[in-house]
Amino acid sequence: MSEIIASMAGSVWKVLVQVGDQVEEGQDVVILESMKMEIPIAADFDGTVKEVKVAEGEFVNEGDVIVVVE
Fold first, then answer.
1. Nearest of 60, 29, 34, 64 to residue 44 by alpha carbon
2. Do 49 and 68 form a contact (C-beta atoms < 8 A)?
3. What's the predicted TM-score (pTM) here?
4. What are the tens digits of pLDDT across the range 17-61?
5. Spatial contact of 23 and 17, defined as CB atoms under 8 Å apart
6. Where are the domains of the chain?
7. 22 beta partners
8. Given this structure, which CATH class describes domain 2-69?
9. In whole angstroms, what is the distance from residue 36 CA to residue 5 CA?
10. Residue 1: its pLDDT value, please?
11. Strands laid side by side in the 10-15 sheet
């Protein structure tokens, strides 16, 4: 299993995937909001979403796991 991590601290503005979804390398999975900017977080690899560890409105820190992909 592989983990997609937050590249910066911010609030989860939108979760774009659900458990069971297929993702491709470069596909956005979550959009963070920080300092009034929207920052997309993309998958670094292809796979199937096994777990979404964040919810819209939550705050994440840089390095937090946001999605687990297999």
1. 29
2. yes
3. 0.89
4. 999 999 999 999 999 999 889 999 999 999 999 999 999 999 999
5. yes
6. 2-69
7. 48
8. mainly beta
9. 20
10. 80
11. 37-42, 28-34, 10-15, 59-60
